[in-house]
Specification:
membrane, transmembrane, Rossmann fold, about 60% helix, extended, single chain, 3 domains, disordered C terminus, transmembrane helix, alpha/beta
Length: about 300
């Protein structure tokens, strides 16, 4: 069973828009709990109307198949397909009758229009991840918004995609901010109990989790589930800073490369100069320098990176 904390205002906003027949776009970066909020709201949405739940909007053909399956579960008939007891068989029949994505989309829009005109609350279509929306999908999503209530979860950058503004203008926008410190603490306590985390100084541990997570639910879970309590309390490397540290060490190693190349070039030049002048000592010294460059440069670079 999932742990859910907070989001009362955002959840209320989604429900009010959905019950008023207006679509909703739920906007937040990954880890902020869009999917968790939609799952939490699912019973309330289902109490108002039939809910057609789909996972992703892209690829569009897969989305249409998922929508057909959801409509099959809800027993919303599609023209030309006699529903049997086998959803996969009916899905194949639908695919044969409507071969292109355009024909499939038209058939589903028509079916949802007939359902909406039957006198019941029109269906609510939830897309758990609509980040993959493209301009070519927009006309069909607009058509679906006219016969069903859309609830789409997206990354904020998705709202800036070209040729999608017409869709977002039809939907109420609900943004998910980070959790408050109190809500973050409540979530952390619940997850500590769920995963059986034991910390010598529980208060210090929870305070550090709240501070490090920045109120992002996904980060709270990552810290509690995958990072030891000792590392968090003692401020050891907890993963988020590891990549940056590695990049800095790699940059120091890469910065050494030009120096090694110059040293190798000097050794090669000394070797050829000694050969041209007939100076055996210079020729031998250049040869030793070239050999040292070839053998030692990988080790020198590795030493800098590790240090």
């Amino acid at each position: 069973m999932s742990v859910f904390v907070g989001r009362k205002e955002e959840g209320r906003a989604v429900l009010l828009s959905a019950r008023a027949g207006r679509g909703v776009v739920l906007s937040a970066p990954p880890g902020y709990g869009k999917s968790a909020l939609l799952e939490e709201l699912r019973p309330a949405l289902e109490a108002w109307s039939v809910v057609l739940w789909t996972e992703k909007l892209a690829p569009f053909g897969a989305f249409l198949r998922d929508l057909f399956r959801a409509m099959w579960d809800a027993r919303i008939p599609v023209e030309g397909v006699d529903f049997s007891k086998d959803p996969e068989k009916d899905l194949q029949a639908w695919g044969k009758r409507y071969s292109s994505n355009e024909e499939k989309a038209k058939s589903l829009v028509r079916a949802l229009r007939r359902y909406a005109e039957s006198g019941v609350n029109r269906a609510t279509l939830v897309v758990d991840d609509a980040t993959g929306v493209t301009g070519s999908m927009v006309p069909w999503l607009v058509a679906l918004s006219e016969v069903a209530t859309l609830v789409l979860a997206v990354h904020p950058e998705t709202l800036r995609k070209a040729n999608t503004k017409r869709l977002w203008m039809r939907l109420d926008r609900v943004d998910l901010p980070p959790l408050s410190p109190r809500e973050t603490r409540e979530l952390a306590e619940a997850l500590v109990e769920r995963y059986g985390v034991v910390a010598e100084d529980r208060e210090a541990y929870l305070a550090r989790v709240v501070s490090l997570s920045g109120g992002i639910p996904g980060e709270v879970e990552r810290l509690i589930r995958y990072v030891s309590a000792e590392d968090i309390v003692r401020n050891r490397d907890i993963g988020t800073g590891y990549a940056e540290g590695l990049a800095r060490r790699e940059e120091r190693g890469i910065a050494l490369a030009p120096i090694l190349l110059v040293a190798g070039g000097v050794a090669i030049a000394a070797r050829y100069l000694g050969l041209a002048r007939g100076e055996m000592d210079l020729y031998v010294a250049g040869g030793i320098g070239v050999a040292a460059f070839v053998v030692l440069s990988p080790w020198l670079r590795k030493a800098v990176v590790v240090r």
